[in-house]
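BUG-276 | component: ligand-complex export | severity: low

The export step for farnesyl diphosphate jobs runs without errors, but we want the raw record kept on the ticket for reference. Input record follows.
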Amino acid sequence: MRGPGSRKGRSAAEDVGLPEDPLALIDFTRLPRHVAVIMDGNGRWASARHLPRIAGHRAGIAAVREVVEGAARLGIEVLTLYAFSRENWSRPAPEVNALMRLLRDYLDAELSTLLERNIRFRGIGRLEELPPPVRTALADAEQRTAANTGMLFLIALSYSGRAELADAARALAEEARAGRLDPATIDETVLAARLHTADAPDPDLLIRSSGELRLSNFLLWQLAYSEIWVTPVLWPDFRRRHLHEAVVDFQRRERRFGGVTSSAARPRAIHGRVHP
Ligand code: FPP
């Protein structure tokens, strides 16, 4: 099914002169190392069908599977999906409970696939705020995939970019108070090492579904130089070909990291932080 943003029966890819699935156009020597995704539009997908919002979240699982599998097949190093923000706790309790249930069901159903595909899984965010059964399922999936060497798959849960930065600031202050850290040595590298994504490169590409042009408090520090790709396709309709479309578009961009370089080559370091 085509996303509601497509015009006159043509997909977004065809509108910009791409084949229906532009996989063949991807240059595998210049893949984004880290792709981050804001999965949006589940509610609108459901209300367009006169269904409860949770039906949209349930339908969104198929898109999650497609993107995880698609990214792993492409050879993406890190995939981060924004599944539940701290702000989402303010949603009606039945919707929050259903989302928590879906997460557990997803992990139950997909763990064997993650293992088969050599994918390493981890939750990021204020995980201590999640219900104990979800925390247990996350810890189990993390532990069972810990030795995998393929794609790192991060799910952001009870996540807030501002809270993550506040937590990092608190951790630095506590280390300084305990005498383990000289405040004069705090720079971008030292702070980034206290973020949930300390072991991952910053996202090269941010994908957002459903057409909104917002960061929604997602990876505020890490997205500083990411290329942003927004599609009108609602998340439950998002498929592997949309991921391919985003990668092709990413490879057509000129990344300058604030400098004037005209090629895909990146400066070695920005304010002391190495961008490999
Ligand atoms: C935003 O759509 C989506 C969410 C808040 C939840 C995303 C969750 C899933 C896709 C399913 C569970 C995920 C995993 C990883 C198993 P929205 O409800 O804000 O949509 P709207 O903007 O149209 O109302």
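Assignee comment: Attached the raw record above. Residues 39-44, 53, 57, 60-61, 64, 81, 83, 88, 99, 102-103, 106, 155, 235 surround farnesyl diphosphate (CB under 6 Å).
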